[in-house]
Amino acid sequence: MRLGIVFTLGEGARDAQASLGQDLADVNADGTAQLPLATTVVVDAAGTIAWMDVHPDYTGRSEPADILAAVDRAVAPSLDVEK
After folding, report:
1. What radius of gyration do the chain's Cα atoms show?
2. pLDDT in tens, 41-55
3. First-to-last CA distance in the chain?
4. In the structure, how many helices (H) and strands (E) does the chain have?
5. What residue spans define the domains of the chain?
6. What phi and psi values does residue 55 have, to the nearest 5 degrees?
7. CA 56/CA 73 separation, integer angstroms
């Protein structure tokens, strides 16, 4: 499954890193110059993505309250237990 949450560094960014003696492809396990976007994924008990929040700006993050609400919604069906 591909979530589409990675991007390839542009030539300018790669050149800037190279000028500092850095090469992202050298340290990435897959040998690419790709980085993931800041992403939070909530998966339900069946393995289905119940909620996903992607931030193209690396300084952005999911709000804890939003994550907790998504978790509550994802687990709520499994809490329906007959008495």
Report:
1. 18
2. 999 999 999 999 999
3. 38
4. 3, 4
5. 1-36, 37-83
6. -120, 110
7. 25
